[in-house]
Amino acid sequence: MLSKLIGTGAIAALLAFTGPADAGSLKLGHSTWVGYGPFYIARDKGFFKDEGVDVELVIMEDTPIKMGALMAGQLDLVASTVDEFPIYMKPGIGLHYVMAVDNSKGGDGIVATKDITTIEGLKGRKVAFEEGSVSQFFLNALLKDAGMTQNDIEAVNMAATDAGVAFAAGQVDAAVTWEPALSQGAAAPNGHILLTSADKPGLITDVVAATDATLKDKKDDVQAFVRAWYKALDFIKSNPDEANAIMAKGVGGWLSDPKVFAETLSGIEYIDKDKNIAFFGTAEQPGQITQTLGTALDVWKGFGRIQVDVKPADMIDYDFVKG
Fold first, then answer.
1. Which residues pair with 55 in a beta bridge?
2. How many CB atoms lie within 10 A of CB 298?
3. pLDDT per residue over 256-308, tens digit each?
């Protein structure tokens, strides 16, 4: 069964898990990203415990393995971009967004040669991006707005960082990537930033999602998790330097230096309670998350990546963000 969910190659990784956390505790998987720093504030400053929940934070860089672990019940929660979750949904397993984490406001974008000044200018040009990633989603959402499709460009599949390097080396005409590769590409002699996520607010947003089984068995724990997130953001506002040190150490990797963490932080905004409520909206008056998820479903269905018949309303839980 597990091999059907995530592929044979991921089984060994999942065996390291002890299974989902017990009642009163949660296990969350996330990649190395500046947006996930406040999880470590909530852990290290005791906000999770204050709210009555113990949260284990697991760094997992491989998205298919991470999502497979969520679908298989090895993780209670996963943090990732809005668009990625539908790709990994399995028939019979409901998945629900419970909270927004951060919104990209310039941290992601497209770097291009200086003669390309519009999205339409990408037609017939070599554009590097990672297939199946938020970069492909972002690009296709922009192409759609311009009345184009991916068939109008010459797609070159490579990881986001490699895409930036390939652009700087003159191997492609444009690259969809994120910081620091975005700025590095723009610094190339013939490079400039064509467009960033700041021009399309709400399109690249990290959220936390859980399966319907987790929300049934651990509803109070998930609610406590959300409240602790809000406390962590309040702490960051009052103690920015201490917060950056805690977050850099917790997230680690290429963000382990507090200075680098702070610099990267300028490309996103954390989403507090008021912004969460506005982003989610209500069933009667949906917020931006409904539009973003709808665009994601359209894009990924076009590439045959969606395995279940699902609508945005099926995946959005409007209650947890209320705290």
1. 26
2. 13
3. 999 999 999 999 999 999 999 999 999 999 999 999 999 999 999 999 999 99
Question: Would you mind telling me the total number of residues written for the chain in this entry?
Answer: 323
Domains 2-105+203-322 and 108-199 share a fold: yes
Angle, CA of 217, 282 and 288, to the nearest 5°: 105
Q: Which CATH architecture has domain 2-105+203-322?
A: 3-Layer(aba) Sandwich (3.40)
First to last CA, the chain: 36
pTM: 0.89
Question: pLDDT tens across 184-203, in order?
Answer: 999 999 999 999 999 999 99
CA distance 177 to 156: 13
Domain layout of the chain by residue ranges: 2-105+203-322, 108-199
pLDDT at 14 over 60: no
**Which residue type is seen at 99?**
M
| DSSP β-ladder status, 205-211 and 95-104 | antiparallel
Quick one: the chain helix, strand, coil %, rounded to 5? 50, 20, 30
Q: What are the C-alpha distances in Å from 144 to residues 10, 150, 172?
A: 34, 9, 21
Joined together, the tokens standing for residue 148 give: 């184009």
Asked if 162 and 175 count as a contact pair (C-beta separation under 8 A), the reply is no
d(CA 158, CA 145): 24
Looking at the structure, give the CATH architecture of the domain made up of residues 108-199: 3-Layer(aba) Sandwich (3.40)
Q: Is residue 217 exposed (0-12), middle (13-18) or buried (19+ Cβ within 10 Å)?
A: middle
Among 264, 270, 279, residue whose Cα is nearest residue 322: 279
Reduced to 3 states (helix: H, G, I; strand: E, B; else coil), residue 282 is coil
